[in-house]
Design goal:
GO molecular function, one term: ATPase-coupled intramembrane lipid transporter activity
EC number: 7.6.2.1
Number of helices: 40
Largest sheet: 9 strands, mixed
Radius of gyration: 38 Å
Catalytic activity: ATP + H2O + phospholipidSide 1 = ADP + phosphate + phospholipidSide 2
Oligomer: single chain
Strand order of the largest sheet: 15-34-33-32-16-28-31-30-29
Number of strands: 34
Family: Belongs to the cation transport ATPase (P-type) (TC 3.A.3) family. Type IV subfamily.
Cofactor: Mg(2+)
Distance between the termini: 78 Å
Length: about 1200
């Protein structure tokens, strides 16, 4: 074998009693026909791929695409995306109208900005989709060995595979399509498959071929191979398959155990042969995929409504202008001979057709007042979001040293959406966990071993220590209470004794899968322990009761293990470290090398396997019956404690009480537990039972499984308890702390996993999504048979009843601290997601503190995400790391991919990519909070400044008799958004910080400002609009009043239109730039440069523009130097108007900070006066206030513990106040 590994060739079918037991070769099949109804029409001609390229079959190729666009659809779809924006539609109409003679501006000046804005955005979309295309091509161009003809195989690209092709897949390769397993490198057609990309599970699945195809184990055997497969049509169900194989005039039924699904991986098997059934988008994994959606943030969608409002205002004032112009044309134009009103060709000033003149003027006004709707807004937002994305990408606090990857904002469209997330839907395996189990603690013969604490215990203890310190500092009579409760044992107020002297950070542990620390058992010290025989038996159960295969690394001489579950691998590593190394498996035995025997030398002990009763989710236990070297027959069993404890004999419960107590402690620490037991068998007892068991195995009929279960249950009785194990499903670094912080920020967290319910619950405890005392609502349909239509209706009724009862229970709960957790499996979810039940399910889920959905398919993940998104109408975020998470990542408002070990499918489908789940805390609480406030304030300010500028144009036109005349020079208008006010607003959107990053993490409740939309609600939007209206009125009328008949020059001349317009424009520049300075909370030299530099830029522009020839500068020639600068009234008017414009806003923020401050206002005050350093108590008090009330996470666990301690203290105090 490669990489220096050696593996024995085994017939694995003898190890399995349920999942892999095949019927006898001579058994008569009761029924092999497919259901006679739609959905079962697919026909596959094995080894004849060309047949399927012709009608009526014509199956699709194996080419897949996950892009949003292709060459044909890019232009129409991308244009549709751009013109979904209301403002772009307006500017498109304005650009078209600019081609007419009634436009006040040239066509180029209207079309060019629109083309630039739309073109840049479409280019960005094209680049992002090109990246998806490149990833698709990498997958489509993978190579696989395909049968060509005459028993000769050759390599082809995945994209060239066709239905009916026979393919040979080697170890550690992905399956290129959905295949029917024909044979494998094992003699009996067994192979191991890893389905991590499909359901997120890391444990290996065992697949088996039909016995009739076992001879097809060599290339040459396929020379004349022919067969016909009739099966179900393409569908999204990962766990079902119905079909049959017609071969050699016989019909053989097929089931899911013979199907190898695309994107799963071949493991622990040298090679397999299979025939292609489904290709490309017909495969089950692609059937579970959803189309790449076009996502827009809620802020951007709301911005469209603001555009509608401003457009309505634009139309309103344009109508007023056109009516005024029509009236003027009708009554005043006949006296204005210079307009040539009697010229029949003059339709613009025709007093005989005032309505037509008014209509033409309406178009002119719509274009003239177009500054109310800023086209540069979209360009500025795109640029700001691009810079924000760069800051996210370069955040070194989100850099993962192990993988060398940084965070990546794969799209910048949703930056502000990160600050408004209400619900997080997370995958489990590879996202919350590391796909690694560590043996941490154990209980043997009633004695607890293992001093190392789990990550959950350490983090919770730290949190509790901080809370106790805060609590004690608030109790002035605490020492008196201590005195009163002097008899209170120290153990009752200790923090669960989990903070170690090394603070939980011990780098000594280097063995993967083994984090156990206890000198009583390590290094062979268990030889000195009492109950030595029980300890040896415990280790032997770990080393024998499993289905793993050892692999010897010739380079190191050590064994590693290919196990069906990570638990088994951890047990075997633990047994090895304790001195019981599983080193060999043969057809009928296992060999364990004891390194610490009583006589000092390693000894290989062989145990003959008589029977193995495998683990299933229904049985929740596994047993193996072995004969040791002394001829003694032993049944060794491990399983869930609830199952094992019910099967103990009367004399087997010696350690039951102590073991139960230890299991509760392990469960509270977030560890996964199993109980271990055994019993000795007499030869006659085993022989009699084995005869019954063989009869059940060889039986034919629908009750075969039930018979096997009944006979197995007979044997697994009267057990003797040995002890229990506790393994830690290694969470990714910082996951519990991250979940706790997100919970404090008010976010709800759902876990959607393909794992079993027991595994999901254990992870829930490890993450503190579940805790002791939380009431679990388990909804499941697994125990019911839903084969018939009537049964399906009954199951549906049962699920509805479970949901109704659970909702009623929550409503009747009177304890304010009560917490509920909803746990539902995939079958139950199938019914819960139906239209007539999904809203009741959602109401129940929303009422629960945490929700865990287990055994869910990728499509169910997407459907749950859609239900939460549409049902709650709140922002949802989905996070995952595998191909099975792509659906929910695309369906959520924000998709986050973990760039982990499961490939790049999730990352390629995501909007943001991070290396670890813990970085989600920083991505949301810091970057999300900042980006939301920045974009919200930026948009509000943008509309404010354009309202100020646009309305002054309307006022002057009305003042000038609706003449269509602009008071500003054309170059002033063009430079307003592009040069003079663009940089300050960009600096606001990129650099603004209400609080620092550290404070964002210390005060997670600040995040609620985004979820409550405090900075972009209608009250604030209309407030900014009102501010703009007020400023425009002040600027226009103060200037008109001052300059209307006031001497302007030294010789007594009054100001002309160009002078008044320039003064008015100067006031606008000063007012809007001072306004943005008042808006900013965080100043750097960049903000100062951009804000005050923009003001200076106006004077520089006015000076340089005035130096140009009069043919270019017109009335602005030498205007600043000769007319404005020498006039004191110019400077005093600018100062007066600027103060008058900003005074109301200044008064508003002063009042708000003094009498109704927001959270960040208080923090800013504390930081400014350095009270966080001088008064630590106040700082701690404010920090404790900044937590949202939550029932999940460490905080909730600590608070529950604190309530428990307080209750004990009060009880102790009340009892001590009475004399004995």
């Amino acid at each position: 074998m490669t990489r220096g590994r050696i593996r024995a060739r085994l017939r694995r079918s003898s190890l399995y009693t349920f999942s892999c037991l095949r019927p006898n070769e001579n058994e008569t099949l009761e029924s092999t026909s497919l259901p006679d109804r739609p959905g079962y029409s697919r026909i596959v001609y094995c080894n004849q791929p060309l047949v399927h390229q012709k009608r009526p079959l014509r199956y699709p190729s194996n080419y897949i695409s996950t892009t949003k666009y292709n060459i044909l659809t890019f232009l129409p779809k991308a244009l549709f995306e751009q013109f979904r924006r209301a403002a772009n539609i307006y500017f498109l109409l304005a650009a078209i109208l600019s081609l007419t003679s009634i436009s006040p501006f040239s066509a180029v000046s209207m079309i060019a900005p629109l083309a630039i804005v739309v073109g840049l955005t479409m280019a960005k979309e094209a680049v992002e989709d090109w990246r998806r295309f490149i990833q698709d091509m990498k997958v489509n161009n993978r190579k696989v060995n395909v049968h060509k003809e005459g028993g000769v195989f050759g390599y082809k690209s995945w994209r060239d595979i066709r239905v009916g092709d026979v393919v040979k897949v080697d170890k550690d390769q992905f399956f290129p399509a959905d295949l029917l397993l024909l044979s494998s490198s094992y003699e009996d057609g067994i192979c191991y498959v890893e389905t991590m990309n499909l359901d997120g599970e890391t444990n290996l699945k065992v697949k088996r071929s039909l016995e009739v195809s076992l001879f097809l184990d060599d290339d040459a055997t396929f020379k004349d191979f022919k067969g016909i497969i009739k099966c179900e049509d393409p569908n999204s169900s990962l766990y079902t398959f119905v079909g049959n194989l017609e071969y050699d005039r016989q019909i053989y039924p097929l089931d899911p155990s013979q199907i190898l699904l695309r994107d799963s991986k071949l493991r622990n098997t040298a090679y397999v042969f299979g025939v292609v059934i489904f290709t490309g988008h017909d495969t089950k994994v692609m059937q579970n995929a959803t189309e790449s959606p076009s996502k827009r943030s809620s802020v951007e969608r709301k911005m469209d409504y603001i555009i509608y409002i401003l457009f309505s205002a634009l139309v309103f004032i344009s109508v007023i202008s056109s009516v005024g112009f029509a009236v003027k044309t009708r009554y005043a134009t006949p006296n204005q001979w210079y307009l040539q009103p009697n010229d029949p060709k003059n339709k613009l000033y025709n007093p005989h057709q005032p309505a037509l003149s008014g209509l033409f003027h309406l178009v002119t006004a719509l274009i003239l007042y177009g500054y109310l709707i800023p086209i540069s807004l979209y360009v500025s937002i795109e640029f700001v979001k691009f810079l924000q994305a760069i800051f996210i990408n370069q955040d070194m606090h989100m850099y993962d040293e192990d993988s060398g990857t940084c965070a990546e904002a794969r799209t910048s469209n949703l930056n502000e959406e990160l600050g408004q997330v209400e619900t997080i839907l997370s995958d489990k395996t590879g996202t919350l966990t590391c796909n690694q189990m560590d043996f941490l603690k154990c209980s043997i013969s009633g004695t607890a071993y293992g001093t190392r604490n789990s990550e959950v215990e350490i983090a919770a203890a730290k949190q509790m220590a901080m809370d106790l310190e805060e609590h004690n500092s608030k109790m002035p009579n605490f020492h008196q209470m201590e005195k009163i409760n002097s008899g209170f044992e120290a153990s009752e107020i200790e923090l669960e004794t989990v903070i170690t002297s090394k603070d939980g950070k011990d780098d000594k542990h280097l063995i993967k899968g083994f984090s156990f620390e206890d000198s009583r058992l390590t290094d062979g010290n268990w030889l000195n322990e009492p109950n030595l025989e029980t300890i040896i038996l415990f280790f032997r159960i770990l080393a024998i009761c499993h289905t793993a295969i050892p692999e010897l690394d010739e380079e190191t001489g050590s064994f590693s293990y290919e196990a069906e579950s990570p638990d088994e691998a951890a047990f075997l590593v633990a047994a090895r470290e304790f001195g019981f190394e599983f080193c060999k498996r043969t057809q009928s035995s296992v060999v364990v090398r004891q390194r610490y025997p009583l006589f000092g030398q390693p000894v290989d002990r062989e145990y003959k396997i008589l029977t193995l009763l495998d683990f299933t989710s229904k049985r929740k236990r596994m047993s193996v019956i072995v004969r040791d070297e002394d001829g003694e027959i032993l049944l060794l069993c491990k399983g869930a404690d609830s199952i094992i404890f019910d099967r103990l004999s009367k004399n087997g419960k010696m350690y039951l009480e102590a073991t139960t107590r230890h299991l509760n402690e392990y469960g509270d620490a977030g560890l996964r537990t199993l109980a271990l037991a055994y019993k000795r068998l007499e030869e006659t007892e085993f022989t009699a039972w084995n005869n019954e068991f063989q009869k059940a195995k060889s039986s034919i009929g629908s009750d075969r499984e039930a018979m096997l279960e009944r006979v197995s249950d007979m044997m697994e009785r009267d057990l003797i308890l040995v002890g229990a194990t506790a393994v830690e499903d290694k969470l990714q670094k910082g996951v519990p702390q991250c979940i706790d912080k997100l919970a404090q920020a008010g976010l709800k967290i759902w876990v959607l996993t393909g794992d079993k319910m027991e595994t999901a619950i254990n992870i829930g405890f490890a993450c503190s999504l579940l805790r002791q005392g939380m009431k679990q609502i388990c909804i499941s349909a697994s125990h019911m048979d839903a084969s018939a239509q009537d049964s399906k209706e009954a199951v549906k009724e049962n699920i509805l009843m479970q949901i109704t009862n659970a909702s009623q229970m929550i409503k009747l709960e009177k304890d304010p601290h009560a917490a509920f957790a909803l746990i539902i499996d995939g079958k139950g979810l199938t019914y819960a997601l139906e239209d007539d039940m999904k809203h009741q399910f959602l109401e129940l889920a929303v009422d629960c503190a945490s929700v865990i959905c287990c055994r869910v398919s990728p499509k169910q993940k997407a459907l749950v995400t859609r239900l939460v998104k549409e049902g709650t109408r709140k922002t949802t975020l989905a996070i995952g790391d595998g191909a099975n998470d792509v659906g929910m990542i695309q369906e959520a408002d924000i998709g986050v991919g973990i760039s982990g070990a499961e490939g790049m499918q999730a990352v390629m489908a995501s909007d943001f990519a991070i290396a670890q789940f813990q970085f989600l805390e920083r991505l949301l609480l810091i970057h999300g909070h900042w980006c939301y406030k920045r974009i919200a304030q930026m948009i509000c300010y943008f509309f404010y400044k354009n309202i100020v500028f646009g309305l002054t144009l309307f006022y002057f036109e009305a003042f000038a008799g609706f003449s269509g005349q602009s008071i500003y020079d054309d170059w002033y208008s063009l430079s307003f958004n592009v040069i003079l006010t663009s940089l300050p607003v960009i600096s606001l959107g990129v650099f603004e910080q209400d609080v620092s990053s550290d404070v964002c993490l210390e005060f997670p409740a600040l995040y609620q400002q985004g979820t409550r939309n405090l900075f972009f609600d209608w009250q604030r939007i209309f407030g900014w609009m009102g501010n703009g209206l007020y400023s425009s009125l002040i600027i226009f009328f103060l200037n008109i009043i001052i300059f209307y008949d006031q001497a302007f020059r030294a010789d007594g001349q009054t100001a002309d239109m160009s002078a008044v317009g320039t003064v008015m424009f100067t006031c606008i520049i000063w007012a809007v730039n001072c306004q943005i300075a008042l808006t900013m909370s965080h100043f750097t030299w960049i903000q100062h440069l951009f804000v005050w530099g923009s003001v200076a830029m106006w004077y520089l522009f006015l000076f340089l523009y005035g130096t140009l020839s009069p043919t270019t500068s017109g009335n602005a020639y030498q205007l600043l130097v000769e007319a404005l600068a020498p006039a004191p009234i110019y400077w005093t008017t600018t100062l007066l108007v600027t103060v008058a414009c900003n005074l109301p806003y200044f008064a508003h923020i002063s009042f708000q900070r003094s009498f109704n401050p927001l959270d960040h206002h208080i923090i800013q005050e504390i930081k400014y006066y350095k009270k966080d350093v001088e008064d630590e108590f106040m700082w701690s008090r404010e920090r404790s206030k900044a937590r949202q009330k939550t029932k999940i996470g460490f905080t909730a666990r600590v608070e529950a513990k604190m309530r428990h301690l307080k209750a004990k203290l009060q009880k102790k105090q009340s009892s001590s106040s009475y004399p004995s």
